[in-house]
Every structure is written in C-alpha cells, then in structure tokens.
Amino acid sequence: MADAFIVDAVRTAGGRRGGKLAGVHPVDLGAAVFDAIAERSDFDPAAIEDVVTGCVMQGGEQTMDVGRNAVLASKLPDSVPAVSIDRQCGSSQQAMQFAAQAVMSGTQDIVLASGIESMTRVPMGSTATLYMKEGMGNYKSPRLEEAYPNVMFSQFMGAEMLVKKHGFTRDDLDAFALESHQKAIAATEAGAFDNEIVPLEIETPEGAETHKTDEGIRFDATMESIQSVKLLQEGGSITAANASQICDGASAALIVSEQALKDHALTPRARIHTLKVTAGDPVIMLEEPLFATEKALERAGLNIGDIDIYEVNEAFAPVPLAWIKYLGADRDKLNVHGGAIALGHPLGASGTKLMATMLNALEQRKGKYALQTMCEGGGQANVTIIERV
After folding, report:
1. Where are the beta strands (DSSP E) in 224-308?
2. Which residues pair with 200 in a beta bridge?
3. Where is the active site (predicted)?
4. Is the pLDDT of residue 96 over 80?
C-alpha cells in the first residue's frame, strides 16, 4: 500500500460565539484556509483532485455542499471538486482519513482535507430542531426508538456518565480546565501557534483588525473563577467552564502521495502511519476514544509509551481524563498546547484543527509519533497516528 504524507496543516484562530468571527460567512472561513494551503505549499492548486470538508451543522449558510462553495469562494480553480461530510465532532478528522485512504489506494495523489463550522451563524443543534419545532419529524425513527426506548442521545448526559464511571470529581474536571487555559496561554505567548494560524482581516465595531489569536483563552483564568461557573445539571459535575467552548473556525490539511511530492517539489512534514475508526455504546457515547486508541495502537504495532504527544479532544474534561487513566498514558504529553476547553471546539473543523496543532507541537518537540483522537456523536471515535519525517 502506498504512503500518504501531510505537507501542511493550517487553521484560523478560534472565534468565540458572537465574537470576532461572527461577521464572517463560514464559506469564507473555509476559503481563507484553502488559499493559505495553496500559497504556503507553492504548487499549482489545479493539481488538487478533491477537497473533503467536514461540517456538522449542514444547514443555512453551511448547506449546498459547503466545501464546494468554499472552493468557489477561494483562489482554487473551479475545476477542483469538493464533498462535505458529517461524522459529528470527528468530521474533519474523517475527512483527513478519507483523503489519506484515497492516496494510499493509489486512486488520487493530492487531496485537501478540511473542516468548516461557524457555531455563531449556524448554532449547534439547529438543523435537528428546525423541523421538530414545526411538527415535521424527529431524528429518532420508530425503529431507532424501539431499539433505544426513551433514550435521548445526549453528549452532556454521556459526560456525566463518564464522570461517575471513572470516579472523577468536579475538582478534577475544573483543575483540568485550568490546565488547558494555562497551556494555551503559554503556547500563545511563546508563539507556538504562529505557524499554524492563518491571519484573517476582519471588520469589528472598533474597525479593521487582524484576527490571529484564539479568542476563547481566558488569560485571567483561576481555579476560583472556573469553580464559580454554575453546574449544567443539578447534582452533576459538568459546567461550561470544564467543557469545550462554542467556537467559529476553519482548518485544512494537504494530504499527498510520494509521487506528488516528486512531481510538485513538495516537502512532507509527516507520514500518516495508522488510521482507525470504531463505534460502541451510543448512550455513554464519549468513551469510545479509549477503546479506539487501544485498537489503533495494536494495529500500528506500537504501545502508548511510543507516542511522543497526543491530542485528545477536550469536548468535556472527563474525556481526556478517562483516556489517560484507561491507557496509562503520560499526562505531560497530552494536549501540550491546551485543548478545546481553552481554544474552542468548532465541531466539524476540529479534526484538521487538532492536526495542525499536533503537527507543529511534534516538530517543536522533535518527536517521532503523535496520536489524535476524539469522541463523536453516536458513540464513535477516530484515531490518526502520524510519524514525523
């Protein structure tokens, strides 16, 4: 089987709900990262054979194949096709895996994987509730209701179940949340994100400015301020402060074959080593990254100690905490530049966003292997292992 290489990965800086990116159409967010990939890699973008775009809320401004619309809004030629996909929070990680599979199979040589999500302009859950409000249906079909009677598939409930199952306290979650902000602050101040962030020229009520810093980071975060945030459920442990932030953003990664490296004088940054996707309990839902990682490591012929850094999406604090505990992993290697609690989780854009951060962190630490995983709706999880070259 042929190898697939990552040439580059970029992202926008995250925008808070109603924040600096609220005035930017999601299609234009995607166009910005597409342009950056083409410009930074200095090759003829007409050679891109497909664009695979992850997006969760495919409604309103994010409908009509949002990935193709972003191509048309970008400097890429109209001859570049695109498809938009949804594997919930793992959508753009799956886009990356589809791109890699196309290259590994020999059917394509250059594929752009990407993700787009404006959670301000197309709110979370809006596509599911639109018709329900009009009495026109529910995502749960009669057969699905029969299989899971009276069950509401809820990530918030899954997070609380994870807390109880793995024996965490709210203090554990809040301490992890503070750590996420502290890592993100340190990374920002050290310029660790500079190579991955695509600066955006935006208009704000105060005038034009360049958006290049993740807006969700709480530079004044303390344990006291995090613990002051109210619980989302009485008797629970999850709060808005120890869960991922609603976020606007886009991201992209260029995946190519060895032949493309030669033909277009491209320099690889990493080789995609192992791909895995698994599914399990759709009710607790968020636990699947633990088991998916175990299976991915077995397939790769590696153990957790071989991995130099890991990105485990901070959808909720108990997810990475349970992952670390279950796998016996080194917490110092986890989300080394902070995670979604501080940086935001732009749903369908998070997969390639995490890859941009992980790839740069791996290079900065001169490591060899890095592993990325995240929990996904329906009890699914993707795992991608890369090797620095």
Report:
1. 247-257, 270-279
2. 211
3. 89, 345, 375
4. yes
pLDDT of res. 140: 87
pLDDT at 161 over 70: yes
Contact, 15 vs 249, CB < 8 A?
yes
Question: pLDDT value at position 134?
Answer: 62
Say what the pLDDT of residue 133 is: 62
Which stretches of 15-162 are assigned E, i.e. beta strand?
15-16, 50-54, 82-85, 110-118
Nearest residue to 275 (alpha-carbon basis) of 296, 252, 254: 296
**Per-residue pLDDT reduced to its tens digit, 44-70:** 999 999 999 999 999 999 999 999 999
**For residue 16, pLDDT beyond 80:** yes
Mean pLDDT across 71-98 = 98
Given a cut of 80, whether residue 287 has pLDDT beyond it is yes
What is the DSSP secondary-structure string of 161-196? HHHHHHT--HHHHHHHHHHHHHHHHHHHHHTTTTTT
Work out the angle between the directed axes of helices 318-327 and 288-300 (0-180°, nearest 10).
Answer: 40
Q: Which two tokens stand for residue 113?
A: 């994987």
Which residue has 């995250």 as its token pair? 14
Return the active site residues.
89, 345, 375
**Does residue 237 contact residue 231 with C-beta atoms inside 8 Å?**
yes
Q: How many CA atoms lie within 13 A of 107 on its CB side?
A: 7
Q: Is the pLDDT of residue 72 over 80?
A: yes
DSSP 262-276: HHTT---SEEEEEEE
Please tell me the predicted confidence (pLDDT) of residue 131. Answer: 65
Cα 79 from Cα 98, distance rounded (Å): 20
Tokens of 109: 């040589």
Strands (DSSP E) found in 3-106: 4-11, 15-16, 50-54, 82-85
| Whether the Cβ atoms of residue 386 and residue 273 lie closer than 8 Å to each other | yes
Query: Max alpha carbon distance in the chain (Å)?
Result: 60
Tell me how far apart the alpha carbons of residues 387 and 375 are, in angstroms, rounded to a whole number: 22
| Spatial contact of 130 and 122, defined as CB atoms under 8 Å apart | no
